[in-house]
């Protein structure tokens, strides 16, 4: 039997990404977010939803830029820490021994330890209630060439062992069970 629950956002699993922001080292901060996603392929666009009370909120609003850094099993502990501690009280780069790297287009730093950093420029801010949604253009992507297959040029994100967040828990990725379109492929 199915139960009726009060309305809630239970779309899981989701990413748990580390968003880096700030335009100078004194301002640099990292916030862990799960309320984020892709909203358009061409032009490439994505969103993040941030509560106005977060320290990162004003930094992102002032600079209108941020970087989405994909997280990995190795970064799981750091990812959680950056989601329960505030930049008001800590320099998260220093505390977590993360390296702020130069992005190509935005002033916000990338996190060098992340395999994939997506540079974003905010286009619009929508106040929705508890969260404000920052709708952004992707202006550059920085990929660690450690995960690029020299022969094929393919970026193997799975080799970086990305993590997922589901209903309060973090998970490793499981085994591959098919690729795009495999369900209709002729044998
Ligand atoms: C897995 C995870 C997901 C989170 N997702 C969001 C989110 O989507 N939006 C948000 O405003 N806060 C989210 N948070 C909470 C912030 O990361 C947390 O309040 C953080 O301490 C804010 O940092 P700051 O004050 O330095 O900006 C999340 C935390 C965790 C651990």
What is the topology?
Elements: E1 17-21, E2 29-33, E3 36-40, E4 45-50, H1 55-63, E5 65-69, H2 76-81, H3 92-95, E6 100-101, E7 110-111, E8 116-127, E9 132-143, E10 163-166, E11 169-172
Antiparallel strand pairs: 1-2, 1-5, 3-4, 4-9, 5-8, 6-7, 8-9, 10-11
Bound molecules: flavin mononucleotide (FMN).
Flavin mononucleotide (FMN) is lined by residues 16, 29, 31-35, 49-51, 54-56, 80, 83-88, 131, 165.
What does this protein structure show overall?
This protein has helices spanning 55-63, 76-81, 92-95; strands spanning 17-21, 29-33, 36-40, 45-50, 65-69, 100-101, 110-111, 116-127, 132-143, 163-166, 169-172. It has a single domain (15-170), classed as Electron Transport, Fmn-binding Protein, Chain A (Pnp Oxidase, Chain A, Roll). The strands form three sheets. A seven-stranded antiparallel beta sheet has the order 2-1-5-8-9-4-3. A two-stranded antiparallel sheet has the order 6-7. The chain has a two-stranded antiparallel sheet with strand order 10-11. 10% of the residues lie in helices and 33% in strands. The longest helix has 9 residues, at 55-63. The chain contains three helices and eleven strands, in the order E-E-E-E-H-E-H-H-E-E-E-E-E-E. The mean pLDDT is 97. The chain is mainly beta. Residues 16, 29, 31-35, 49-51, 54-56, 80, 83-88, 131, 165 line the site of flavin mononucleotide.
